[in-house]
Amino acid sequence: MLVQPGGAPLTYTILVRGFAAAVALAGRTDRPDVRFDLTLTVTHPGPGFPDDIAAVMSYEDIVEDLRRLCAESNVSGAEYLADRAADLCLSHAKVRRVQVDVTIPAADSDASSAGASLTRGRPGLA
After folding, report:
1. Would you list the domain boundaries of the chain?
2. Sheet holding 114-121, edge to edge
3. What's the pLDDT at 59?
4. In contact, 82 and 23? CB cutoff 8 Å
5. What spatial distance separates the first Cα and last Cα of the chain, rounded to whole Å?
6. Which of 31, 37, 46, 95 has its CA 20 to 30 A from that of 53?
7. Res 126: pLDDT
8. Can you give the three-state secondary structure of 40-102, one letter per residue?
């Protein structure tokens, strides 16, 4: 593992912006398209790493996790979705930190949307 000056592991950032999927929310008869924006800090595989998907973190793995999350029924809200998305991201060993923003459009087009944002890191890591 490569380290930066000071000993912190070398990382890179994966951005997932504007992922949206219909979600069955508790208390709503419609299935609004919920938006997810993720920023993942991921351990860098090192110099000269092979051109192999196994050597790097694939954003497609995260997108598949989000699709499964959005397929759940009777979802309680943005906080639940943000919490579960963070857990799913951190279940991948290469992910060190994740910021999750979730936005749920209002049922009424004249009302404001609701959302949640959280940042979580792997326990024991700075």
Report:
1. 11-107
2. 11-22, 33-43, 95-104, 114-121
3. 83
4. no
5. 16
6. 37
7. 47
8. EEEECCCCCCCCCHHHCCCHHHHHHHHHHHHCCCCECCHHHHHHHHHHHHHCCCCEEEEEEEE
Radius of gyration of the chain (CA): 17
pLDDT in tens, 65-105: 999 999 999 999 999 999 999 999 999 988 999 999 999 99
Give me the architecture of the 11-107 domain, per CATH: 2-Layer Sandwich (3.30)
pTM of the predicted protein model: 0.85
Return d(Cα 70, Cα 126) in angstroms, integer. 30
The pair of structure tokens assigned to 40 is: 């993942």
